[in-house]
């Protein structure tokens, strides 16, 4: 009887450790997709500043090929599209894993839906940016949606971190913050984020 109880306890411990490892993998993988999205936006800025936005004149292929003959500008635009494809595929695969776990689905399901709406919009806008010959309306829209997509992924990564790797409470080390101060801090952060967001869009014009 005692042996059976010990075996059950060991089994539960192994299962808990497995869940912990899987949770860490999900959290780190989603953070990786978020960082890759930041790199994607940065490479997009490099493409624009290098005048390489139309180096692949067609879409989604480049000169009708998956891997076209390369020069510097063609490589920049092609590489930008390659990263975008990796982000898209990675998000789909990770979302399947996340949505299979009820606690994660309840926590970030709505944000994942928003991320996919933004991703679909970004794919369309990326194509219109090329086919529209870099019209400012498409360029700015492409940047605006891209930043919103990155912000959504960052939020999901933070939420997954709270569920999968909850940090030790610091409430005993710091004085409690009143609801009024929390609301004021939230408004300040929200306002600062909005200012930075619109400043980045203006910079892309």
Question: Summary?
Answer:
With 205 residues, the protein is mainly alpha-helical.
What topology does this entry show?
Blueprint: H1 2-49, H2 72-99, H3 102-131, H4 136-164, H5 179-203
Helix pairs in contact: 1-2, 1-4, 2-3, 3-4, 4-5
Describe the structure.
This protein is an all-alpha fold. It contains 5 helices and no strands. Helix 2 (72-99) runs antiparallel to helix 3 (102-131). The N and C termini lie far apart (73 Å). 20% of the residues are buried.
What is the average per-residue confidence, as pLDDT, rounded to a whole number? 87
As a percent range, the share of helical residues equals: over 70%
Radius of gyration: 22 Å
The major pleated sheet works out as: none
Q: Give the assembly state of these chains.
A: single chain
Q: With helices defined by DSSP (H or I, 4 residues minimum), what is the helix count?
A: 5
């Amino acid at each position: 009887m005692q042996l059976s109880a010990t075996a059950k306890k060991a089994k539960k411990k192994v299962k808990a450790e497995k869940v912990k490892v899987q949770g860490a993998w999900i959290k780190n993988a989603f953070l990786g997709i978020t960082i890759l999205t930041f790199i994607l936006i940065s490479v997009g800025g490099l493409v624009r500043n290098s005048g390489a936005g139309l180096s692949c004149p067609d879409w989604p292929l480049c000169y009708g090929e998956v891997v076209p003959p390369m020069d510097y500008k063609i490589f920049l635009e092609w590489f930008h599209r390659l990263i975008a494809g990796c982000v898209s595929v990675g998000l789909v695969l990770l979302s399947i894993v996340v949505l299979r776990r009820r606690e994660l689905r309840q926590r970030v399901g709505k944000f994942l839906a928003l991320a996919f709406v933004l991703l679909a919009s970004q794919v369309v806008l990326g194509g219109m940016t090329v086919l529209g010959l870099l019209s400012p309306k498409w360029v700015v829209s492409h940047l605006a949606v891209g930043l919103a997509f990155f912000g959504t992924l960052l939020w999901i990564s933070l939420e997954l971190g709270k569920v999968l790797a909850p940090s030790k409470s610091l409430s005993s080390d710091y004085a409690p913050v009143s609801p009024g101060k929390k609301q004021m801090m939230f408004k300040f952060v929200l306002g600062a984020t909005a200012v930075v967001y619109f400043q980045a869009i203006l910079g892309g014009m």
